[in-house]
Amino acid sequence: MDEEALTALQQQSVDVLAAAVSGNLKTVLSPEAAAVLMAVPALCDEVRGLREALEGVCSQFGHEFEQDGRRYLSTLAFRDLQAAFAVLGWDDPHPLPDHSS
Known about the structure:
By secondary structure, the protein is mostly helical. The protein has 3 helices and 3 strands, in the order H-H-E-E-H-E. The radius of gyration is 21 Å and the shape is elongated.
């Protein structure tokens, strides 16, 4: 996205926020912006589903080990797992939840 488009998007965001505060949202949203706004919940659900799937792949193919009484998941330096851990924002090794209760 170029600088001009980003500036226009930022201004539209400010206009939408101002309109929302004043209760006059329909006057500032273009049909395209309204469509994007309506798509946000579905996109969030899709991202959540993709994250859960990626976590499952990491759990299935990552190396689980225990150290100092704590369980971890490691990539063992496999490039694709390293990329998946990075996308998830996980450290390598990634501490696993304690299921001892």
